C-alpha cells in the first residue's frame, strides 16, 4: 500500500503568457502509515503537488501510482481514490456551512451514500479523533473558536474514512497555542489510526517536531527527502532557500533536548 509519484511535472496554462512550471520531475514514494512533512517556501509547488495525489490536478507528464496502479489508466476509479486520499485544504473552515457541527461532519459520508446512522457514527468517531468536544456537536460551526472550527473541518474529511490524510498548512492563521494543539492532535491521530498523514507547511518548525520524514520542495523540484536528521544536515542550504534559520535553530534545540547529538553552534547534527 503506497502512493508514489514518478517523474511528475506540471505546467499551469501551457502555451499562454501565464505559463508556469510548478513541478519539475518530482519522484517519491510514501508507504502506508508514514507521517511525512512536505515543506518549502511559498510558491515552491506544495499545493500543486498534493492536488496530484488525489487526482484533482493531472500531471503534464509522469505518473501517480496508488497501491501500485497508475491513476491515469483508462477506467481508473477516481471517485474511489478521492475517498481514500482525503485532502484538507488551507482554511478548511470556510467550507463549513451546515446548521450544526455534527450535520456538517456527516456531509461527506452522506454524499458517499451511507445510511444516516452510519454517517453519524463515522462523524462522531472523526470528531473524537480530532479532539472536538462533544458539548459543541450541536452548535453552529460559526460560533466556534478558530481552532475548533479547524478541528471540525478536518473531521469532515476523516469521516469519509480515508487511508491517507493530507493537510495543507493546517496551522495557518492559528495562534501559537492553537497551532500546537492542532499538531499534537494530528500526531495523536496518526498514532492511533496508523493512517498515512502528509503535513504540508512552509514552516520547518511546525513540521520537524512531528514527522518521521521530510520532503523539501524548492522551485518545483524535490530538494531533499529524508528523516529530519538527514535533512537538517543541509542546514546552510535550507537557510539559503528561505527555510529560516531561527526556525531551524529552534528545531535543533528541540532535538538536543531529545538527546540527539546537536553541535553547540546549533547548525549541524553529528552522528550518533
Ligand atoms: P505552494 O503551495 O508551495 O505555495 P503552489 O503549488 O501554490 O506552491 O504554486 C507553485 C507555483 O505555481 C507558484 O509559482 C504559483 O504562482 C504557481 N501557480 C499556482 N497556482 C497557479 C494557477 N492556478 N495558475 C498559474 N500559476 C499558478
Strand-helix topology:
Layout: E1 2-12, E2 20-31, E3 35-39, H1 46-53, E4 61-66, E5 69-70, H2 78-84, E6 85-88, H3 101-111, H4 116-129, H5 146-158, E7 164-168, H6 176-193, E8 196-201, H7 204-208, E9 213-218, E10 221-226, H8 228-232, H9 235-240, H10 245-257
Parallel strand pairs: 3-8, 3-9, 6-7, 7-8
Antiparallel strand pairs: 1-2, 1-4, 4-5, 9-10
Residues 12-13, 18, 20, 22, 40, 42-48 line the site of adenosine-5'-diphosphate (ADP).
Main sheet makeup = 6 strands, mixed
Point out poorly predicted stretches. 266-272
Q: What class do helices, strands and sheet pairing give?
A: alpha/beta
- Give me the strand/helix succession: EEEHEEHEHHHEHEHEEHHH
How many alpha or pi helices? 10
Shape: globular
CATH architectural group: 3-Layer(aba) Sandwich
Instruction: Tell me the fraction of residues in β-strands, as a range.
Output: 15-25%
Secondary structure: number of strands: 10
Radius of gyration: 19 Å
Q: Give the class-level CATH name.
A: Alpha Beta
Arrangement of strands in the largest sheet: 6-7-8-3-9-10
CATH topology: Rossmann fold
Amino acid at each position: 500500500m503506497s502512493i508514489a509519484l514518478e517523474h511528475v511535472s506540471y505546467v499551469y496554462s501551457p502555451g499562454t503568457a501565464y505559463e508556469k512550471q510548478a513541478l519539475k520531475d518530482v519522484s517519491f514514494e510514501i508507504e502506508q502509515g508514514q507521517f511525512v512533512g512536505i515543506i518549502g517556501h511559498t510558491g515552491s509547488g506544495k499545493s500543486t503537488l498534493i492536488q496530484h495525489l488525489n487526482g484533482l490536478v493531472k500531471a503534464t507528464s509522469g505518473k501517480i501510482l496508488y497501491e501500485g496502479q497508475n491513476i491515469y489508466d483508462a477506467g481508473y476509479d477516481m471517485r474511489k481514490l478521492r475517498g481514500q486520499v482525503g485532502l484538507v485544504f488551507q482554511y478548511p473552515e470556510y467550507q463549513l456551512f451546515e446548521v450544526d457541527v455534527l450535520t456538517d461532519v456527516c456531509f461527506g459520508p452522506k454524499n458517499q451514500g451511507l445510511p444516516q446512522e452510519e454517517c453519524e457514527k463515522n462523524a462522531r468517531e472523526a470528531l473524537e479523533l480530532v479532539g472536538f468536544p462533544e458539548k459543541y456537536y450541536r452548535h453552529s460551526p460559526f460560533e466556534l473558536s478558530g481552532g475548533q472550527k479547524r478541528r471540525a473541518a478536518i473531521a469532515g474529511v476523516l469521516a469519509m474514512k480515508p487511508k491517507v490524510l493530507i493537510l495543507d498548512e493546517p496551522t495557518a492563521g492559528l495562534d501559537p497555542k492553537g497551532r500546537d494543539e492542532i499538531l499534537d492532535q494530528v500526531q495523536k491521530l496518526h498514532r492511533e489510526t496508523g493512517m498515512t498523514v502528509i503535513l504540508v507547511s512552509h514552516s520547518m518548525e511546525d513540521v520537524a517536531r512531528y514527522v518521521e520524514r521530510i520532503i523539501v520542495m524548492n522551485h518545483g523540484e524535490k530538494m531533499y527527502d529524508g528523516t529530519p536528521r538527514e535533512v537538517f544536515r543541509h542546514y546552510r542550504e535550507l537557510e539559503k532557500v528561505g527555510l529560516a534559520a531561527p526556525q531551524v535553530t529552534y528545531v535543533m534545540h528541540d532535538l538536543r533536548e531529545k538527546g540527539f547529538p546537536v553541535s553547540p553552534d546549533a547548525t549541524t547534527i553529528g552522528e550518533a
